[in-house]
Amino acid sequence: MTNKNGAKSDMNLVKLIDRFHSEEKCLAYLEQLRWPSGVACPRCGSTSISRIQKRGQFDCNSCRYQFSITSGTIFHDSHLPLWKWFLTAYMMAEAKKGVSANQVKRTIGVSYKTAWYLCHRIRAAMTEVNPEPLKGIVEVDETWIGGKHQNMGHGYTGNKTAVVGAVGAVERGGPIRLKVVGDRGRKTLHDFIHGVVAPNAEAIYTDDWPPYKGIADHDTRHETVNHSAKEWVCGDVHTNTIEGVWSLFKRSVIGSYHKVSTKHLDAYLDELEWRFNNRDNPFLFRDTLRKLLLSETLPYQNLVES
Question: CA-CA distances (angstroms) from residue 306 to 264, 301, 303?
Fold first, then answer.
């Protein structure tokens, strides 16, 4: 299967079903991903390991710790068959506009609560930890996420949440960084930019929103397009790339999720970041599973508590 950018994926639905139709095959693949150089004790790191075949576990010959392939991972406290995890991870990673918990519920035959919890655990694993700063030319833009409100004017934002994002690289085909913010003020936007953009980035392109002023320094210039005057492109200066990301996310909310809460909005943005930043990765499914193996459990109570 080849995506629209020409990258050939190593996984499609037919391959997924053929390769991972049993728990044993799923476990064997996770073992290979977790310990490519051989099983190692997660407690002491020893590679002197004995297998407990009947229980599907390992016994460390050094510290006597007994563990399984999923011990200490996001899979550990789950009663779902691994193939359902694999299929859901594949759906979420490959669907350009995401998939809803209702769609997952219908596809893998579980309750809505189980599907919702499963999707959020996968989203939590997709979160990038300490991502690389954006370099080259970086576009920055902010938007409002939220539904319409009856009897209110076009500019009403009382039921909306502010989100800011950036896309980087010299040809602006690089990674994105997205974040829910409390407002669109100068300090908020400048803090976001300083947090995601490399100090020696070539340029930062924004619209003419006044709080962006003053973001330039001695080796990074700041250029704008005047959206209030209907100017969308000035030479190579524009914010069309990051605005395309907003368009994609809003279509996801309308077409797939239908609505998202402010509380979990960052999680949906993390999911979009992972998919977008890996859009040319032919091993996206494999790398998504690897992220799941590296992630700690996410208790249901942590998701639902206010």
Answer: 11, 10, 8
Q: Which domain holds residue 206?
A: 137-262
Domain for residue 73, yes or no?
no
Q: Which residue has the tokens 């508590």?
A: 305
Residue 203, in any domain of the structure = yes
Asked if 259 contacts 147 with a C-beta cutoff of 8 angstroms, the reply is yes
211 occurs within a structural domain = yes
Strands 57-60 and 137-145: unpaired
CATH number of residue 197's parent domain: 3.30.420.10
CB distance 94 to 285 below 8 Å:
yes
pLDDT band at 3 (very low <50, low <70, confident <90, very high): low
Please, what sign has the CA dihedral across residues 2, 282, 278, 263? positive
Whether the CB-CB separation of 215 and 227 falls below 8 Å is answered with no
102 pLDDT higher than 60: yes
pTM for the structure as a whole: 0.89
Query: What is the total count of domains within the chain?
Result: 1
Q: HSE-up of 134 (CA within 13 Å, CB side)? A: 29
> What residues are paired with 74 via a beta bridge?
none
